[in-house]
Amino acid sequence: MTIGTYRTVKVEKEDGIGWLYMNRPEKRNAMNPQMHFDMDAVLPEIEGDPEIGAVILTGAGEAFCAGQDLREYFRGLDGDPMGRRRAGEASERWRNRRLAGFNKPTIAMVNGYCIGGGFTQMLCCDFAIAADEAVFGLSEVNWGILPGGLVSKKLTDTLLFRHAMYYACTGRTLDGKRAAEIGLVNESYPRDRLKEETVALARELMEKNQEVLRATKHAIRAVRTMNDDQAFDYLAAKGAEIKQRDRENAYANGIKQFLDDKSYKPTFGAYDREQAIRDNQAAE
Ligand code: ACO
User: Fold this and answer.
1) With a threshold of 0.90, does the pTM exceed it?
2) What is the best residue among 28, 92, 145, 172 to mutate for testing ligand 1's pocket, by most ligand atoms within 8 Å of CB?
3) What is the pLDDT of residue 70?
4) pLDDT value, residue 197
5) Which regions of the chain carry the CATH code 3.90.226.10?
6) What's the order of all strands across the beta sheet hosting 54-59?
7) Distance from the CA of 70 to the center of ligand 1, in angstroms?
8) What span, in angstroms and rounded, lies between the C-alpha atoms of 49 and 106?
9) Which regions in the chain score pLDDT beneath 70?
């Protein structure tokens, strides 16, 4: 399948991974309205592409994302309420809906500056891996606004209250190592290992049964705002959904491989999906 070409985003496919670049390196990948429209359009394409099993979102050049474009997204739309609305809706939709609800695993690979509004897409990805040298910062407090959109919300959903308060109110920057320490990202690696470690995580995720993985990632995100009764009911429904959608018969084949074949231990890796497919065919 061929993905369209866009002015401010770029997609490359490599061994089942879709590399999605914010692509304005000369502006440190600051998000202008066009980038929001481009992202809003490209994400459904990627989601529907059978050649892509996982997505890695990163920035072209030295930065991950320098936040909203202060010239084009803010000042440029100051006298244009309809333009602001269109850009604002696309800005929220591609990140808080499309990315957060994506049906394939998503990893933010934070290669450099991740500032202000750039936090949103980093936090809306399922996982985030940073370079030790990356620089994170909530600069909003330093120029007269607060971390809006849903930045403050996603931040407090992710971090301990004390850390969220501290970094939002001081605007102090933190590097990748510190980001990993406080749980803003999963892991941090020296820049020269960033790509290989991010790809290793993507590969590990792609080896899983995709229906089980999809239901699990949606569930982990969804239950955070539910009470126990709601979560219990939701998780039961998600479990039923897996049984309905899973053509590999992961549950029965996993148990067979552990109990009967004694060929794997679920604690240490995924069951053998190739073997499961052969067993399913033999049983038909
Ligand atoms: N909006 C518009 N243009 C930007 C932005 C931005 N957010 N960030 C960088 N640029 C532009 C610069 O104006 C410059 O353009 P020019 O070459 O036409 O002068 C170019 O990108 C390169 O920027 P430099 O500052 O020269 O790059 P440097 O690597 O030295 O610094 C840094 C990078 C630290 C990210 C710096 O550009 C910066 O502080 N940017 C502002 C970050 C910010 O506060 N973003 C808004 C957050 S709030 C929100 O998103 C809601």
Assistant:
1) yes
2) 28
3) 97
4) 98
5) 9-206
6) 9-14, 17-22, 54-59, 106-110, 127-131, 187-189
7) 8
8) 14
9) none
